[in-house]
Amino acid sequence: NHEKVEFTVTGQRGEINPQSKDMTIEGHVVTKSSNGYIFTTEAITYSAKARVLRSPGHVWMRGPSDHRGQGITLEGDQMETLIEQNLMVIRGHVLAKKVLSDGKDFRILSGIAQFSSRDKTAKFLDSVSIESGTMKMEGPEADFKYQDGTDLLQAVQVRGGVKVSDVDKYATSDMVNVDPSENKLILSGSPRVVQNNDELTG
Predict the structure, then answer these.
(1) DSSP run (H or E) holding 198
(2) Cβ(56)–Cβ(49) under 8 Å?
(3) Is the dihedral of CA 57, 11, 40, 142 positive or negative?
(4) pLDDT (tens digit per residue) in 79-114
(5) Is 141 within 8 Å of 122 (Cβ atoms)?
(6) DSSP code, position 180
(7) Cβ atoms of residues 107 and 97 within 8 Å
(8) Which residue from 184, 186, 189, 155 is spatially nearest to 174, judged by alpha carbons?
(9) Do residues 156 and 41 make contact, with C-beta atoms less than 8 angstroms apart?
(10) Does the N-terminal or the C-terminal CB of the chain have fewer CB atoms within 10 Å?
(11) For residue 46, what pLDDT is reported?
């Protein structure tokens, strides 16, 4: 596209319409973005006029590697890549996993996942559930933000009315910021925390 982001698609069979320049690739299709995302599907179509890549079937994704090795992994029902908008979208029964710097696993379930083809930012939408150890967070949307120029996950921000639960406590607030490096949660917007018989609001 205009920002020089490239996608390379390989498969076992290919077909191109010489008039429209639309393409279809089938058979163990692998799509690679120039910023390190790899998608595996059984088939993919490309609309030349709309500049959109689509996979109507199940998709597996592996994100760029980080300082721990393997990046985020994900699967979902279908994929759509909007090339001019630098956006890769996975829809339907999204399940993602990410290993944090302390070795803990983040498990994310949602209806939609969006990834930028320019950097490593990621957004999850539609009934988001995040699990890490015994902690569980639920909310409408979540953003994964990385430090500029690095592969370090700086923060996970869950917005739109969030519920947090753990072994002996639970909390609600408008927004929750998770700082993985300090293993800290910051609740903002009508926060309420209940632990055993104690309750804290602010």
Answers:
(1) strand 198-201
(2) no
(3) negative
(4) 999 888 888 899 999 999 877 666 677 789 999 999
(5) no
(6) T
(7) yes
(8) 189
(9) no
(10) C
(11) 93
Is residue 132 within 8 Å of 104, Cβ to Cβ?
yes
- Express each pLDDT in 67-87 by its tens digit: 655 678 899 999 999 888 888
Task: For residue 117, give the amino acid letter.
Answer: S
DSSP code at position 152: -
- Signed CA dihedral, 188, 72, 96, 1: sign only: positive
The tokens for 24 are 């279809």
E-strand ranges in 83-196 read: 87-99, 105-116, 122-132, 135-146, 153-165, 169-179, 184-188, 192-195
Q: What is the mean predicted confidence (pLDDT) over 123-131?
A: 91
Strands 73-76 and 78-82: unpaired
Is residue 37 a contact partner of residue 63, using CB atoms and an 8 Å limit?
yes
Give me the pLDDT at residue 74, please.
92
Q: Are 3 and 86 in contact, with CB atoms under 8 Å apart?
A: yes
- The reported pTM is 0.83
Tell me which of 176 and 68 has the higher pLDDT.
176
Give the single-character DSSP code of 168: S
Q: Which two tokens stand for residue 162?
A: 């969030």
Say how many C-beta atoms besides its own lie within 10 A of residue 31's C-beta: 23
Q: How far, in Å, CA of 106 to CA of 139, rounded?
A: 15
Task: Say how many residues make up the chain.
Answer: 202
Place of tokens 């759509």: 80
| φ, ψ for residue 83, nearest 5 deg | -65, -45
